[in-house]
Specification:
Keywords: Hydrolase. GO terms for molecular function: hydrolase activity. It comes from Geodermatophilus maliterrae. Helix content is about 40%, strand content about 20%.
Length: about 280
């Protein structure tokens, strides 16, 4: 690690600790081993409640769920993960290189947490990860909530890709902040979380697993009760296209378009519809 890398890591750790201090309910941290490394997990809610595993979007960390977790933790034992290979407090020894690795990593993480079948929710890229796992291991998912999942039912909008190119080409804190501010169009964003995401943009991370839209036949056959939340004011993808496509390929799924929220202001704002789905 170079001196610059050390400074970036220190800045990220400081931002992460500050955001975690604002987690709205009592929380504990755990680390769970797998073939791919150690996964950092934030745990909250009653130990007697059914388990709910939360996956964040790319670069967002488990802290992205802070704005939604108060309601979720009132009805579930929550396990919010920092995905292996991404910004966060997890440590990777082997990168996730394919969809099978995503399934294997999540399965071993659930095993390490002592969990069998769980409710599973994912936002953005985490939605794709959650859907991938449910398709591969349906017996381990009781209910599936996909919060504005990307590359699962539709592609990104051209306008979003245009604004995201600078972040993808050379990630910096300033570019990440600019993308989020543009996409949310002045709507409130958790400043503590945005500081984490911005600092995380400057950390060296593994390339994300290349995503492919699942086979429609597999989606149609999925019997796990599924909720898909679309961002009504989102700029990352067209919520109308998301709703139409889900209706076509997953007719048994429930689609909820939440008005006034965008891709990057979620998952806060989706907690009520997700909580009702879990009841």
């Amino acid at each position: 690690m170079t001196r610059g890398d050390g400074d970036q890591r220190a800045a990220f750790d400081t931002a992460y600790a500050a955001a975690l201090a604002r987690w709205p309910v009592p929380v504990q941290s755990r680390d769970v081993g797998s073939r791919w490394g150690r996964t950092h997990v934030l745990v909250c809610g009653s130990a007697e409640a059914p388990p709910l595993v939360l996956l964040p979007g790319g670069g967002a960390t488990a802290l992205a769920w802070a704005g939604a977790v108060r309601l979720l933790a009132a009805v579930r034992r929550v396990y919010a993960l920092d995905p292996i290979g991404d910004a966060g407090r997890s440590t990777a020894t082997t990168p996730l290189a394919a969809a099978d690795d995503v399934t294997g990593w999540l399965e071993e993480t659930l095993d390490g947490l002592g969990l069998d079948a769980v409710d599973l929710a994912g936002h953005s890229y985490g939605g794709w990860q959650a859907l991938t796992f449910a398709l591969d291991r349906p017996g381990r998912v009781r209910r599936l909530a996909l919060v504005d999942p990307t590359t699962s039912f539709t592609g990104f909008s051209p306008g979003y890709l245009l604004h995201a190119v600078p972040v993808l080409a050379r990630p910096t804190a300033a570019r990440m902040r600019a993308l989020v501010r543009w996409e949310t169009a002045g709507r409130p964003v958790d400043d503590a979380w945005l500081a984490v995401a911005a600092a995380g943009a400057e950390l060296p991370v593994a390339p994300p697993v290349r995503t492919r839209r699942p086979d429609p036949a597999r989606l149609a056959a999925l019997a796990v009760p599924t909720l898909v939340v679309a961002a009504g004011a989102g700029r990352a993808q067209d919520p109308r296209q998301v709703a139409r496509r889900v209706a076509e390929v997953m007719p048994r799924a429930t689609v909820a378009t939440v008005g006034g929220v965008t891709h990057h202001s979620l998952p806060a704002g989706a907690e009520r519809v997700v909580t009702e789905f879990l009841r």
